[in-house]
Amino acid sequence: MTIQWYPGHMAKAKRQVIEKLKLIDVVIELLDARIPYSSRNPMIDEIVTNKPRLVLLNKADLADPKKTDAWISYFEEKGIKCIAVNAQDKQDMKRIISESKVLVQDKFEKMKAKGIKNTRAIRALIVGIPNVGKSTLINRLANKTIAKTGDRPGVTTGQQWIKIGKEFELLDTPGILWPKFEDQDVGYRLAITGAIKENLLDLQDVVVYLLLFLIKEYPGNLQERYQLTAIPTDMIKVFDEIGKFRGCLMGGGLIDYDKTAEVIIRDIRSARLGRITFETPLE
Ligand code: G4P
After folding, report:
1. How many angstroms separate the alpha carbon of residue 269 from the centre of ligand 1?
2. 71, 103, 113, 134: which sits with the fewest CB atoms below 10 Å from its CB?
3. What's the confidence (pLDDT) of residue 108?
4. Looking at ligand 1, which atom is closest to the CA of residue 86?
5. Is-contact 57 85, C-beta < 8 A?
């Protein structure tokens, strides 16, 4: 579910994450691999100080693999360990845990050198904006299919640790942070990927933005999905052809543009338009 953010909510979210940070050794920061820039909390560097951080490009199964590689290099050049994952995939869990352990090892080694014996498990916290996959990842790491722990009001579990093996513990509630709101591109991309409610923006507007992007960056995907022999230059004609092809019609054979827009949004979110990434590191 998606929450609306107001300054009060943001301040509270920040406080809550800072509280949780006191308890943990490593932060696992989730980004959406399709929009690593737009899905990153704008204050994350200020909020997470002095803690090792692992960046996960989640939903990598929906993203363009070449661009995902470029993002991994980008973060690594900045000295931030980054891996691409799919929170629904059990295979990726071992890697997340082992990379987290490596990041903390440094700190634990230093403690050992000072004579502080550390016998407790490594403690981790998952943070990210709504809908980025935090609950899915927690459930998958915990190896259970529990109800969503995400941002459901009224469901306040006490802080509990989920034990994963002997050496690793995860806080059972994630740190929920707000997305960027700074410009229109960010807003559109958050709406396209489902991070913010589409009714916050006009759906047809969002889809026009999406189509313009696809025409520029992934024209082949668009043509293949909707069997377009050529892409019309007129946006209304693009809607007309897709609407006709997908049977989005109103009485009298007119194209239902709202329905067409909904179909396109559903197709992009489920990767039926292919694996698409909206941002590259140097933009
Ligand atoms: P949150 O706690 O951060 O708010 O996110 P949550 O886990 O609820 O995940 C949001 C949506 O993203 C869910 O789909 C979830 O299944 C999907 N998701 C999470 N990680 C991945 C991933 O790596 N790949 C893909 N393809 N999807 C992922 P939903 O449609 O909102 O719910 P549902 O259909 O699973 O019920």
Report:
1. 11
2. 113
3. 76
4. 23
5. yes
Beta bridge partners of 82: 55
Token readout for 259 is 């329905």
Exposed e or buried b per residue across 155-167, where buried means at least 16 C-beta atoms within 10 angstroms of its C-beta:
eeeeeeebebeee
Protein residue whose Cα sits closest to atom 10 of ligand 1: 131
Residue carrying structure tokens 């827009």: 261
The strand pairing partners of 125, in sequence order, are: 27
Distance CA 106, CA 257 (A): 56
Mean predicted confidence (pLDDT) in 222-234: 97
What is the mean pLDDT of the segment spanning 149-174? 74
- Ligand 1 geometric centre to CA of 229 (Å): 34
Q: Is the pLDDT of residue 69 over 50?
A: yes
* pLDDT number for residue 129: 96
Q: Residue 154 — pLDDT band, cuts 50, 70, 90?
A: very low
Top mutation candidate among 83, 90, 136 for ligand 1, by most atoms within 8 Å of CB: 136
Do the Cβ atoms of 124 and 171 come closer than 8 Å?
Answer: yes
In the structure, what pLDDT confidence band is assigned to residue 118 with cuts at 50, 70 and 90? low
Contact assessment for residue 57 and residue 83, using Cβ atoms and an 8 Å cutoff: yes
Residue, of 84 and 157, whose pLDDT is higher = 84
Amino acid present at 62: L
What tokens does 33 get?
């691999």
Ligand 1 center to residue 191 CA distance, Å? 15
Say which amino acid occupies 15: R
CA of 76 to the centre of ligand 1 (A): 26
Ligand 1: list residues with CB < 6 Å. Answer: 58-59, 61-62, 86-88, 128, 130-136, 148, 150
The SS3 call for residue 156 is coil
